[in-house]
Amino acid sequence: xxxxxxxxxxxxxxxxxxxxxxAGPSVIMAxxxxxxxxxxRLYAHDIRASKAHAEMLGRQGVLSGKDVKAITRGLDAIxxxxxxxxxxxxSALEDVHMNIEASLKEKIGDAAxxxxxxxxxxxxxxxxxxxxxxxxxxxxxxxxxxxxxxxLDKADEHASLTMPGFTHLQPAQPITFGHxxxxxxxxxxxxxxxxxxxxxxxxxxxxxxxxLAGTSFPIDRASVAKELGFEKPMENSxxxxxxxxxxxxxxxxxTVLGVHLSRLAEEIVIWASPSFGFxxxxxxxxxxxxxxxxxxxxxxxxxxxxxTGRLLGAFSALTVIMKGxxxxxxxxxxxxxxxxxxxxxxLRLSLAAAAGMVRDMQPQEDALxxxxxxxxxxxxxxxxxxxxxxxxxxxxxxxITGRIVRLAETxxxxxxxxxxxxxxxxxxxxxxAVFGILDPVQATASRKSxxxxxxxxxxxxxxxxxxxxxxx
Amino acid sequence: xxxxxxxxxxxxxxxxxxxxxxAGPSVIMAxxxxxxxxxxRLYAHDIRASKAHAEMLGRQGVLSGKDVKAITRGLDAIxxxxxxxxxxxxSALEDVHMNIEASLKEKIGDAAxxxxxxxxxxxxxxxxxxxxxxxxxxxxxxxxxxxxxxxLDKADEHASLTMPGFTHLQPAQPITFGHxxxxxxxxxxxxxxxxxxxxxxxxxxxxxxxxLAGTSFPIDRASVAKELGFEKPMENSxxxxxxxxxxxxxxxxxTVLGVHLSRLAEEIVIWASPSFGFxxxxxxxxxxxxxxxxxxxxxxxxxxxxxTGRLLGAFSALTVIMKGxxxxxxxxxxxxxxxxxxxxxxLRLSLAAAAGMVRDMQPQEDALxxxxxxxxxxxxxxxxxxxxxxxxxxxxxxxITGRIVRLAETxxxxxxxxxxxxxxxxxxxxxxAVFGILDPVQATASRKSxxxxxxxxxxxxxxxxxxxxxxx
Amino acid sequence: xxxxxxxxxxxxxxxxxxxxxxAGPSVIMAxxxxxxxxxxRLYAHDIRASKAHAEMLGRQGVLSGKDVKAITRGLDAIxxxxxxxxxxxxSALEDVHMNIEASLKEKIGDAAxxxxxxxxxxxxxxxxxxxxxxxxxxxxxxxxxxxxxxxLDKADEHASLTMPGFTHLQPAQPITFGHxxxxxxxxxxxxxxxxxxxxxxxxxxxxxxxxLAGTSFPIDRASVAKELGFEKPMENSxxxxxxxxxxxxxxxxxTVLGVHLSRLAEEIVIWASPSFGFxxxxxxxxxxxxxxxxxxxxxxxxxxxxxTGRLLGAFSALTVIMKGxxxxxxxxxxxxxxxxxxxxxxLRLSLAAAAGMVRDMQPQEDALxxxxxxxxxxxxxxxxxxxxxxxxxxxxxxxITGRIVRLAETxxxxxxxxxxxxxxxxxxxxxxAVFGILDPVQATASRKSxxxxxxxxxxxxxxxxxxxxxxx
Amino acid sequence: xxxxxxxxxxxxxxxxxxxxxxAGPSVIMAxxxxxxxxxxRLYAHDIRASKAHAEMLGRQGVLSGKDVKAITRGLDAIxxxxxxxxxxxxSALEDVHMNIEASLKEKIGDAAxxxxxxxxxxxxxxxxxxxxxxxxxxxxxxxxxxxxxxxLDKADEHASLTMPGFTHLQPAQPITFGHxxxxxxxxxxxxxxxxxxxxxxxxxxxxxxxxLAGTSFPIDRASVAKELGFEKPMENSxxxxxxxxxxxxxxxxxTVLGVHLSRLAEEIVIWASPSFGFxxxxxxxxxxxxxxxxxxxxxxxxxxxxxTGRLLGAFSALTVIMKGxxxxxxxxxxxxxxxxxxxxxxLRLSLAAAAGMVRDMQPQEDALxxxxxxxxxxxxxxxxxxxxxxxxxxxxxxxITGRIVRLAETxxxxxxxxxxxxxxxxxxxxxxAVFGILDPVQATASRKSxxxxxxxxxxxxxxxxxxxxxxx
Lengths: 472, 472, 472, 472
Prior knowledge:
Four copies of one chain form a homotetramer. In chain A, 63% of the residues lie in helices and 4% in strands. Chain A has helices at residues 2-7, 27-33, 36-39, 43-59, 65-84, 96-108, 111-114, 121-157, 177-202, 221-227, 237-242, 245-272, 299-322, 336-360, 365-372, 379-390, 394-411, 420-426, 434-438, 440-446, 455-470, and strands at 162-167, 170-176, 204-205, 232-233, 279-280, 362-363. In chain A, a hairpin with a 2-residue loop joins strand 1 and strand 2 (170-176). In chain A, helix 5 (65-84) crosses helix 6 and helix 8 (121-157) runs parallel beside helix 14 (336-360). The first copy, chain A, is elongated. Chains A and D meet through strand 2, helix 12, helix 13, helix 16 and helix 17 of A and strand 2, helix 12, helix 13, helix 16 and helix 17 of D.
């Protein structure tokens, strides 16, 4: 009884629904149904789209010029109020569209109602959401580019700084610090491309689909699309109001970008650990401790790493939401925006932190040099030298190298600390020239194949990448 | 350049970090790092745990009685301020713990610092979070129980209302409306049990683990655990600060519950569609349209269905966050709370909506009856009758039934509208008695096996379930 | 003890690892480590890439012409054996690359070893995998196109068949069957575009990156890329062996396509339910029951709907795998292929089933017509008519329509069964002309706005879509 | 055309469906529909359940004693054939149940058909699947226990071996190697408990629910449940055939366990990296390289870490599959088994690898000792000493410690290498006694609070954990 009362109608009916909907939604319904806290971020795009719609209706003779002017003036005033912080959003009016419409009615009277001619909330919200996401994608493009710029500057500066390259987190071959950073320039370069491809599919206009079936009013969708910067009106009205693959595609691209950032972040955390000590982080992106003032906890890197989780979470969430939904509009779709907004915010912040960390990180030459002394890191170079210079068959060269490494291990020295005699005791054809290749710096310089780690390659790659990624 | 400036130190250092941390975190760092907007919901649990900790330190002689009193009084005052809405949370103080600690220092001076003896933020936050989740689980237990109560009342009322039971959304056998609802009582009953099992693992106390290794102060963890209602102190200090499986377990249980609610919601949506018309929903949980006032869009059901997405999203997010994290504390863990808070809020709301919808839904006898006339729904009963009463071998009974169904289909009538002769033209052993079983109501009544759909079973099941689920 | 023995070295060492690796991997290790059961599907691409690599080494003077010939001949023989089913894959040789290499050594001796000059398993597997996926994408493009072809034929055939359009699974406005199907042509058309965009990023060549750092051998990557049909060699050697975003992108695109197929499948399940009865499915894609022979369970549709799950599962899995992996190669990457293979197989099958179901489904005119009589489905058309023809303000038109609908509801008739007088009792300005718009067929025909549901639009859209999607 | 033919009926109809289902499923349908390759793993459980069902039907007088004997004998023979490898599974017979039933019919004739009395494939498959999972859970319990045993032995052996404890992968406080391992004993101990809780919910019997509604045959479900070791028959027949939350719960528990294993694996990878060098791995769980024979790539650890991905993948997949499914049985449910089988296999292998790696790993004292000299790791101990022994207020103690650390950093020495005078220059109250606490070994020994890292605690914890976890 009491329980029932608590969930029953409470009179805060949405007055926009008109007179026939007697009982108001209950408190629970109001809470579960209202999206205004989330979708008010669409206000500017809603107003922009409404103005374009009204103007088109004017051009087509559906609205009078006077109405169009009133609508435009009213919407401009509302936008100003919102941006001034004087607009009061009402939860009873559910969403941003109803809030703006109600305010418009207060301001200009009946003409406000006519704005809704030949459209519905279904095509309206899809349009607003696409406009918002298009702007977000443009912002993110800049943010990714900024990370690339930071990586490029750092790679350029340290194009010839030698460090161990790892496989399985075991030292494998010497590479340069610049070459390592350039890998990320490529990775997030593809992320930018994915976002750009996504933008093209976001940039099609649902408006004019009305509730689901189009309209019998003589509207001109092409002109509205042009006005709003859309590539074109969508071809099918049911598709226009029912589909959210543009949002899923964005969340997927965001997740993949998040994975890349998590890999960079993980490397920063590992490199900043004293046992590695490969880089020093700035105070700006670390936290300290009053009792261990030397400690720089890589908090920002850890947070960037973690935030990959919420990106996959958002994609998974929207996939579950969309799975098995019949056409056309269903209220389930209302859950789309929060995921997309959160992913965009998360990326904006993660990218800014990544750019900052990269700019501030200082590679530590001594630690890198010391690490190069571990793990017989030029063993592959020795094997290749045997093949290339001493004509030893490939698999034999591997066996011989293995025995020389074993010898150095037994003696507790680096490969380049073995004497020529010691090496020749394993393989006769080895000559003095081998020492050239046993030094990590020289070994690195020798890997000049396209895409290889040689400093000259890195310098060239930086220059090329600046052109490919930054000049646009 | 300008860009670099924008991300560099800005002086808004957290004053709690002490004097040695010269440059403040940048604006980006402040934004990515601060958790206060999320974790301020922990305030009451933080204060409760701090008071228990202080009192124990007093009992153990680590703090003076005067300090303990000052701390307690100060914390109580802070709690009051927060609940009165007069407390100002500062983003520069990062999180709820630092905000409360800073305020305490203002109020009581140096004693505030001593509260932090023998603990760290690492065990503190894990403790607060578990206390919060324990309360949330208790609340959710009530919410699930309320849905069960609603289902039980409705099932009781309609224990013998016959409707088609579906497989593959095709009519298969007649069941009762009450029996159908009772399936959900069982399903979410297991969800309650999962939540209860989860609660037992949540209810272990990290406090006293300090940063990660325990402490050399002579603390008494058992007494604090008792005071805070924890089952016991956790056995290993690293585990205590590093583990979040209690949160993952909650999110998993929440997802499974969400799946069950989505199935109920889907059935509500389908049943409320005019082509089915099995139920009528109340205005309270539907939305209308001024132009189609008769329309009741099942918005609440659709939202409940959709919200399963954010539950899986939360579990996926935290799984990604936790994957591959070395012990002990890492900043990645800060991302745990937002997921858990959101899942708890989502469930609270979804359960309330589900309970309300179930209470308000009105099964439509006419539509159910009409649907029973479709699909030869008692065909299985006929086959079973042939086996049971006419001694026909099982697979033969199936073939015979198939031929009789085909006959009815050809004639465009229901099975019980065939004449005895018509049936006997297919199978001689059929007698007048068969008509008993061809009527859906009687067929339903005959399924008296344990757990079967007979109305008498449903009545019994309701009684038993009230005892199992509601009396506790 | 016994337990320990069970997991210790067992002598089945991979003989390709050479002499220094004394103890073999244990049984457990062999089981967890071997990927041959999965990656043998790469055999043809592995052989193709090896041949191109060998020929380039020949051109560059690294291998002798004799060696190149022997290698080519040997690889061709191996491919024939595999395709004839006479090749015996050995689990002790771990993966497809080692199996082929070992067989090659048996066939041609030492030259086999030299094939591995200037490459490593790291760039080799990434190359093979991309070649495989490129082929799979080409196959999937055909499969999606075939679904589009099926939809287009069906849409063309039923371009003017009127049916209810739904929002919230409630009848909302009349549409045509063809228009509904065309929504899916658009949806999966974007999926094709996503796959195409993905293909472009797949189609870059890792080969030549060697283990991670490039090589000092004078290789010519551009010519190998050309030979293998790659757009270009990848720019950075670490990126080439470490990145799997091409696989993630494919799995994401697969998931989104899966979501679209699940929506189509859900509609098929609902439409085929007797309560709707909108379509009749063929026996080919349904299952029956011997006792209810008329029953056609939409098994294929249900399986297509369910398989969305494994697509999201695959994307989630690989996201977790890649999260936080330091560069360059790590064994974690071995888990990539099973997910991608399964997703490609799943899509191939789901698309084939979808195409078949669409081709075979028969819309049921009677049921569609009957459903159009429910829910006052032309109410929006009435409101629009009032605005457009009777100059009634927009919101007033809605209120008036609501009252007329209420009137029809009270009388238990359709809107077009009200008399003109009855309608005029609500709104004076209504004239005889209104009846034109109250009939669903005419209402549908009136929605001629671009992308709207009018049959003439659908015919035009089909023609245009054939050009856009099928002629390529 | 040709395309259409390829998907049309092909005559390979499942002969078990009886005569009325004219056209066979097409090739596509056969491929998408058949589950035999996956579900044949259920054969033993299917036979066991069938025997129990037949015997009960005999006891209840539904089947004759002769039939029951024939069925039992026939099923036993089939089981022997399957286990001998002589049984030929047919894909045309779709699933394991039909394969066994068809074979039984060949062996014993008509009685085979009567076995299906009072059950359906719906309750049969749910029963088999639960029996299988129950066995798998029992096996996994042993596997987890074995990892605990390995951890406990290693922890016992190294209960007092001091190493750095990390937060943020930065050295924070000294701990013992044994204490660190004991954290995992606790973590996976909770995983065992979750699996046990899951087992209780798995262990309820669907059999007797028949297709969805129960049956009119006088069955005795309780006795079958007892015979099969089930806790009880499920209470509601629709729930019994429709629910898969037991599978979801297992997959969730598997994912959380996978997360724990991934954390252990990540630590193994990091510790085995030469820059850390904390442990040496055995050859058994690593891979080598012929050219770098000293290299031990932690392949098994990386694979264990990666496999977390497929566990989350499986949970996500089944969540998507189950989301929004109406009751009762739908073909979507067929997709449940592959996920569960794969997760169980994955865990079995990952746990075996984890146990083996833990048993074989050798902590490297020198490296651990060296690492303890970095990062002023006893700074917290100094601060605590100041509070505890020198009565310095808490926050002051932190500031003082910070200044002493800064001093040591400037001098490039460890804290215990500062002279008393140097320390007293910062804080007068420091005495000779402070040196006791500055040594990591002594510092570790002092952390005797419950759950703390002191070696005596670890020894005690090992003993207690052996009792809690291994004696059962």
